[in-house]
Known about the structure:
By secondary structure, the chain is α/β, with parallel strands linked by helices. It has 3 domains: 1-104; 190-369, no CATH class; 388-591, P-loop containing nucleotide triphosphate hydrolases (Rossmann fold, 3-Layer(aba) Sandwich). 59% of the residues lie in helices and 10% in strands. The chain has 19 helices and 12 strands. It has helices at residues 2-51, 54-98, 130-134, 140-150, 156-170, 173-184, 190-201, 209-232, 235-265, 270-285, 291-298, 307-322, 327-337, 339-354, 358-380, 433-449, 481-496, 514-530, 584-591; strands at 301-302, 305-306, 388-389, 395-400, 413-416, 422-427, 457-460, 465-468, 502-506, 534-538, 555-565, 568-577. Strands 8-9-10-6-11-12 form a 6-stranded mixed beta sheet, with helices on both faces. Helix 10 packs across helix 15.
Amino acid sequence: MKDSITGQYIALKGIHEGAWRQLTSRYNLISAIRLLIALGFIVGLYDYFKADRAPSLWIALFLAALFLIFIKIHDKIGWNRKVKKTLIGINEDELLYLSHTAIPFEDGADKINPTHAYAYDLDFFGKNSLFQHLNRTATWIGKTKLADLLLSLLPNAAIQNNQVAIKELAAKIDWRQEVLALGKLINDNRETYEKLMFWAESRIKEMAWIWVLAAYLSPVILTGVLIGFISTRQGVWGNAAVALFLLNLGVLIALNKQIRSEIVSLDKVSEIIRMYGLIIEKIEQENFESEQLNALKNKLKDDTGFASAQIKKLSELFSALDGIQNGFAAIVFNGFFLYHAHILRALIRWKKFHATQIPVWLAVIGEFETLNSLANFSYNNPTFTFPELNDRFGITFRDLGHPLIPEAKRVCNTVDFNTQPFIILTGSNMSGKSTFLRTLGINMVLAGTGAPVCASYANLHPLKVLVSMRLSDSLSDSESYFFAEVKRLKGIMDVLESEICFVLLDEILRGTNSDDKRSGTLGVIKKIVQKKAIGAIATHDLEVCLIAADYPDALTNQCFEVEIIDNELAFDYQLRPGICRNKSATFLMKKMEII
């Protein structure tokens, strides 16, 4: 199955490489033609001025117009060439990923939060994290939306809607990659996004009516004066034209502060906004079947039309406004037409009618990037299953495995929490207890987002996941490891007061003596049973397992065993009923002549 997925990426890479080579040939050909046209233009002008031949001037003017046309063609080919190059890179990244050579995707390390209920313990962010394996976003809002989804639990109806949307998008590999390619061409970051949001939410400062009047009236009067001067050649008309030209520049100076405030707040952002518009246009043009995807798409249209057209207009306005920094052009265009006054007024009007929609439009981009990431995860793992959902606190996984472990090395287990909802898990070091707990946690969270899980079958009630597996001393807060763990356990118990959750605990209370640890662990288990929590606790203390006899309807003992074969430890990572009996630590220490 994986071979067919790899083959698909190889095929797509080959298609895009062929298209890139064709575009490169056309790009180079157009470059050569442009050079010949430029030389022809120079020769025509030279001949006109040297020999005073009028046809040479007309030829030169025609070639100048043709040169401008070829610039447009050249730019369009260059853009398509850049997109194809990006698509080649996207498929190369997927091939590297599937071959386990590298994980060439952003890891979300900035989202690491040791105090979160499960993200830090389950390695959700950072190198080789769940986020890095899933992440196929390119915009800052996309990364944020994906991280937020992994840190939350959706209602059952929303999970089911996401499942349908992810299944549909998984099949749209070409469209998904095209959206990702456009996103990768954006030099997007948190600062740019926040600047745009600040601009959208800031107060609208209208142009004073006197400047609006001047912007329309002065260029008209100046045009009339210039016509008078051309017709009569009288100096009074010329002097009036100069005075009006300078008056227009005075108006520009009066508006300069307001114009520059818009430029400063969103410096060089017009290209990024244009890219947002292209992504939105891809969404608008695609036909979807799922309710979730169409609901997102409908947010991109209102009474004024499509969002992509408005975003394109905004990009053009910012680009035009930024042109004021070109001194000579600014003087000429504003002296005659008060060009930037009109651009400023158009930008103010745009902001007045559309600025409140910017967060909505960009959120749609983020939502689609998030769903595309999960769809890519589903596409890359066709054997994974979408869980059936229930509201009876039932949880069953058949052939459950860790989704980030390569399939060839992954060992799967079947686990059922319906009869006895809490597992006391034993096993020697390296036998697979912690990996199994992480397997449970990651798949429960994936199920709560609408993503497929690493199992052949799953039927579950999505629950809030609470974990205590990995803690560290907090020197800045003057906390020991033990106190940090106690605080985490207190937080878990507080949440269990109000709702049933899925709880995973790994060898708790390691910072105290064995008797204290045992009594504390037993107390925690009793409280968990009382609160009807579902999940598992891993322990090395076999006496803790005896408590299962006191709660036969709530607790079950299960274990991972180790065998000694040919004087070597052998782990099969298979979950078994009962209590672990083998002692690998003593064997290993004897073998290494420690004892």
